[in-house]
Amino acid sequence: MEIKKVGVVGCGLMGSGVAQVAAMAGFPTVVREVSNELLSKGLGGIEKSLAKFAEKGQITAEQKAASFARLQPTLKLQDFAECDLVIEAIIENLDRKRELFRELDAIAKPEAIFASNTSSLSVTEMMTATRRASQFLGLHFFNPVPLMKLVEVVKTVATDAAVLESALAYARAVGKTPIVTSDRGGFIVNRLLVPYLLDSIRALEEGVGTIVDIDNGMKLGCGHPMGPLTLNDFVGIDTTFYISEIMFNEYREKRFAAPPLMKRMVAAGMLGRKSGKGFYDYSDPKNPKPNRELER
Ligand SMILES: NC(=O)c1ccc[n+]([C@@H]2O[C@H](COP(=O)([O-])OP(=O)(O)OC[C@H]3O[C@@H](n4cnc5c(N)ncnc54)[C@H](O)[C@@H]3O)[C@@H](O)[C@H]2O)c1
Q1: Taking the complete model, does pTM exceed 0.85, yes or no?
Q2: Which of 3, 66, 71, 254 is the most exposed place for a label (fewest CB within 10 A)?
Q3: Tens digits of residue pLDDT in 229-238
Q4: Catalytic site residue from 117, 120, 166, 190
Q5: 9 lines ligand 1 (CB under 6 A)
């Protein structure tokens, strides 16, 4: 099925990026939020990001304006009636997502494909809220969406092969490299990344090395662009904690269990960059200092 018109539900951090790349690739794109304030905030973010692309000469002023004009902001789900692909990027809550898909199922045309951008929830459980199991999959974009090249395309046991092909073609059309994965907690990237992030915290907890030495180990020894504790701060300690809980419940394996230090940090509000303190102190954001309190 050819995708001509796209719908994006949610215009937060991820939804705004997903809508932006669709519009930049030439798709008329309906984007929905729950209030005018949130819609304006999301669109403001898109405008700024498009301006940066234009400043860097990656798009022309005309392309910037045309991309923005392809966005159709709305508060109404009815506006998704003509979309060929609807991508959901609302908060990470299974009940809310199921409720949304149930409503959308009654509005969208029968042949439309539904996709969720979930990082950790079961795509299959969302699918069962609709009557279009064979046209349901995951499209897991990465943050920041306009810059990150990867999309995990998540097939369930019920996804039709032609629908999977359409989703792969769509991911390529918006300039991304798709990889195919099955609906198992964490997909490919988080299945490998989350145990690594948790293990770096365990290494600190067990006194294997200091914060800076653990980070330098992986940066300088393995060529990673940033060390694992810096990456924990960047992603948000609470976000990784939440994902690890879901993955632990799915697999019941120790490698997905959050270490006690991580639980304590979340409880204390040390969430990383966004709270100003995590494994590093960001009082001077350009020159983060290791949080020595944790090195005991
Ligand atoms: N943040 C990341 O790095 C990241 C990466 C990949 C995937 N994800 C996934 O993307 C999804 C969105 O995450 P986010 O970080 O953008 O969250 P966010 O909180 O920035 O945005 C979610 C937005 O959805 C809106 N919303 C809630 N219910 C809605 C509804 N019924 N209709 C329309 N809008 C609604 C909220 O008002 C909010 O603005 C989650 O499933 C998350 O797991 C996040």
Answers
A1: yes
A2: 254
A3: 999 999 999 9
A4: 190
A5: yes
